[in-house]
Amino acid sequence: MSEPYRLDNYTPDESIGYLLKRAGGQLSTTVDRALAEFDMTHAQLGIFLRLLHGHADTAADLAREMSIDTGAMTRALDRLEEKAFIQRLRSHADRRMVQVSLTDKGRALADQMTLVAINALNHHLRDFTPEEVAQFKMFLRRMIGNT
Fold it and tell me: What is the reported pLDDT for 92?
């Protein structure tokens, strides 16, 4: 199979990397606008949803899951804790470990926060058929798997 990019056909504005970053930026802006009423950001929503769906429960796990450094994760968790969306508690099993979870306030807003993500995605995918969305996700998973 020939490689999709070569010196004779590559332009930065047609780069998959550029297009993914641009689409991601627009999606992030849409989510940020919708989250303003909740005093939350798109980046904070990612943490919130990972906690909600049980994908991680420590700062280190969240940082790995989201591919960000632990210092940035700690700062993000500080902000979410100040807003009472999350809580950090020492593990009873291992006192060195700090568990992160949603607070009652966070759980109460879970459906509204999830709807913000759903509505933003649906807005940006409005001209796609369900089959195209499935294919797009399959392509992205394949790309991720090529690392």
Answer: 79
Instruction: Report whether 45 contacts 57 (CB < 8 A).
Output: no
Tokens of 124: 């940006």
Radius of gyration, CA atoms only, the chain: 18
Which parts of the chain have pLDDT scores under 70?
none
Give 38's DSSP letter: G
Is pTM beyond 0.90 here?
no
- At 18 the three-state DSSP class reads helix
Q: In whole angstroms, what is the distance from residue 86 CA to residue 98 CA?
A: 12
pLDDT score of 91: 77
Pick from 42, 34, 51, 46: which is nearest to 103 by CA?
A: 51
Phi and psi torsions of 119, nearest 5°: -65, -40
> Which structural domains are found in the chain, ordered by start?
25-145 (1.10.10.10)
Tokens read off for 19: 């297009």
